[in-house]
Write a structure and sequence with these properties.
The structure holds two protein chains of two kinds. Helices cover about 35% and strands about 20% of the residues of chain A. Chain A is α/β, with parallel strands linked by helices. Chain A has a single domain, classed as Rossmann fold, CATH 3.40.50.2000. The radius of gyration of chain A is 18 Å and the shape is elongated. Chain B is of the alpha/beta class. In chain B, β5, α6 and β6 form a beta-alpha-beta unit. The relative contact order of chain B is 0.13. The model of chain B has no long low-confidence stretch (mean pLDDT about 85). The chains are: A alpha/beta, B alpha/beta. The interface between A and B is medium-sized, with 27 and 43 residues. Chain B: It comes from Artomyces pyxidatus.
């Protein structure tokens, strides 16, 4: 099974570090995830033992295949192909992943000044739609993750905004 | 000496009264008699997550009713332009399949305005870029309806939808200027981001007293009991 790790459009050094750490790789392997793809954005990746290939940087740890790259125009395909997603807590990524019905662990970035990301992560976590964790507790979160216990995220309901605007602009229901 | 001071004071007093009188939310427009009537619309795409959310809101609308559509984008944001175009293509395909509203297919335009402030921009130069952004917004919202071939009795668009960040504030000010001058102005609808769970964004706080409809997506954001509405998640 495959895990996709994404940091979004900026950088998140601590998440990339954690995702490639032996304890996380071992925890993933224990749960059956033996392929790790990391979208690292502008994060620091010096110090990892990576080999350059056309498909990104490659490496292998504990028999787990690791691929790292910085950006792609869309992550759609990577979300589709993953069995688990570990992500920064950006609201766009959260919505995209949950709407695909994929299990999600989010790590709010503690270095962001206005940390409302953390509020969103915890609110959705308490509703059971995802797991919120930290970089240091990531291995533990993976081990304790029970995918079947996550509650499905409601589908996009366009009728709410449509009704709201129709009412605002004088269109009868 | 005394006369100019009195005049100035009078002008200030009248302006304050005027602003106070237009700050209260406007009544909704009268019910439209014909279901087939259309409504022109503009939406601000503020980049990144803001754009994605704004386009999800747009995706829920009937494009044969809300036409023509204007996507307002800050300069240097090709991704939002791309996403807006993709949504229009998708909608055009579904509309033409149902053979309904085939006329309004593709009736949209993209309006690019300069950013009020770039990320990490020096605070000293911000007033200059913000002013430039405001002037361009005023040109499009306040001045352009008077230019041929338009008549001045309809606003350039009937409704303006936005969800932040920064640059949408100047658009809102331009629309507000129309009200101050008694000109037709778009109905302003602010939708706070899905990401704001417990507190409003800075843009939300600033625009809350000005807009006609202020909508949030998590109930706790309205805990202070001031104006705003919550209808569940919209995106």
């Amino acid at each position: 099974m495959r895990v996709f790790v994404t940091v979004g459009s900026t950088k998140f050094d601590a998440l990339v570090q954690a995702a490639l750490s032996p304890s996380v790789i071992i925890a993933l392997k224990q749960k059956g995830y033996t392929e790790v793809v990391v979208q690292c954005g502008n994060s620091q990746i010096d110090g990892f033992d990576l080999v350059v290939t056309p498909a990104g940087w490659r490496s292998e740890q504990e028999g787990t295949k690791i691929t790292v790259w910085r950006f792609k125009p869309t992550l759609e395909e990577d979300f589709n192909e993953a069995d688990l997603i570990i992500s920064h807590a950006g609201s766009g990524t959260i919505l995209d992943v949950l709407r695909k019905g994929k299990p999600l662990i989010v790590i709010p970035n503690p270095t962001l000044a206005d940390n409302h990301q953390e509020e969103l992560a915890h609110a959705l976590s308490s509703l059971g739609h995802l797991k919120a964790s930290t970089t240091s507790a990531l291995a533990e979160a993976i081990v304790n993750l029970d995918v079947s216990s996550l509650s499905p995220f409601p589908a996009f309901d366009g009728s709410r905004f449509r009704q709201l605007l129709d009412e605002e602009m004088g269109f009868a229901p | 000496m005394l006369l100019p001071a009195t005049v100035l004071l009078l002008v200030l007093a009248v302006a304050t009264l005027r602003i106070y009188s237009i700050l209260s939310p406007r009544k909704r427009p009268p019910a439209r008699s014909r279901q087939a009537e259309t409504c022109s619309l503009a939406v601000f795409l503020g980049s990144g997550g803001h754009s994605s959310e704004a386009l999800s809101l747009m995706a829920s609308l009937d494009f044969s009713r809300y036409t023509p559509r204007t996507y307002i984008v800050s300069d240097g944001d090709p991704l939002s332009v791309e996403k807006a175009t993709a949504l229009e293509l998708l909608k055009a395909r579904t509309l033409s399949e149902t053979l309904r509203g085939a006329d309004s297919v593709g009736e949209y335009s993209i309006l690019i305005i300069p950013r009020a402030r770039r990320v990490h921009q020096n605070l000293l130069t911000t007033p200059l870029t913000a002013l430039r952004s405001l002037l361009v917004s005023i040109y499009h919202i306040t001045v352009s309806p008077f230019l041929p071939p338009f008549g001045s009795r309809t606003p350039v668009f009937e409704v303006l939808i936005f969800n932040g960040p920064g640059t949408c504030f100047v658009l809102c000010l331009a629309a507000f200027l129309n009200r101050f001058l008694g000109l037709p102005s778009p109905r302003m609808i602010y939708i706070e981001s899905f990401a704001r769970v417990k507190s409003l964004s800075l843009t939300g706080k600033l625009l809350r007293p000005i807009v006609d409809s202020f909508v949030v997506q998590w109930p706790d954001v309205l805990a202070d009991g001031r104006r705003g509405a919550y209808y569940g998640w919209l995106v």
